[in-house]
Write a structure and sequence with these properties.
It is built from 4 helices and 2 strands, in the order H-E-E-H-H-H. It is mainly alpha-helical. The chain has one domain (3-158). Helix 1 packs antiparallel against helix 2 and helix 3 packs antiparallel against helix 4 (133-158).
């Protein structure tokens, strides 16, 4: 197995582990959750909507659906790319980098869902008052850095 395939498999495995954790957290804490839990936070990270505790399952379901959607997209990209004639020269490089970009973003989005699930559970238990605005800034900064990094890598392919 080459290095690229190994890294791609690690990214997928890490994403699957994060998705499993997203389901494990509510499963473990469900009995101790109050009947009403926070479900929405404003930009300052403060709670602005409550729901019944069964609502905790919305996030894992949405996270898993999003993860599966991106994995299916990654699976079908090689089929779609063969129709782009202008990419013939660097098609394989674009394909590998596009797949890697989606896998990294998929892991980041799954991690964000995990953080939100954890924040809801901690807020419901009265241990937190909402989502940390610092960590939210770190998450958005990471997203920005990832997008800029991969955009640079795409531009670099054209100049090789």
């Amino acid at each position: 197995m080459n290095k690229t395939a190994y890294i791609d498999r690690l990214l997928r495995l890490a994403g699957i582990i994060v998705i499993l954790l997203i389901f494990a957290l509510p499963s473990y804490h469900y009995a101790s959750l109050p009947e009403r839990i926070p479900m929405n936070f404003n930009p300052a990270g403060e709670i602005n909507r409550m729901t019944d505790k069964a609502g905790i399952w919305r996030i894992p379901i949405v996270a898993a659906s999003f993860f599966i959607f991106l994995e299916l997209l990654i699976f079908f990209i090689p089929t779609a790319v063969k129709y782009f004639d202008k990419l013939d020269e660097n098609k394989e490089k674009y394909l590998q980098l596009g797949i890697r970009t989606l896998k990294v973003l998929n892991l980041l989005f799954a991690s964000i869902f995990l953080y939100v699930t954890y924040s809801i559970i901690r807020s419901a238990g009265g241990e937190w008052s909402g989502i940390s605005d610092r960590l939210t800034n770190v998450i958005f900064s990471a997203l920005f850095v990832i997008v800029v990094f991969f955009a640079y890598r795409f531009v670099k392919i054209d100049h090789e």
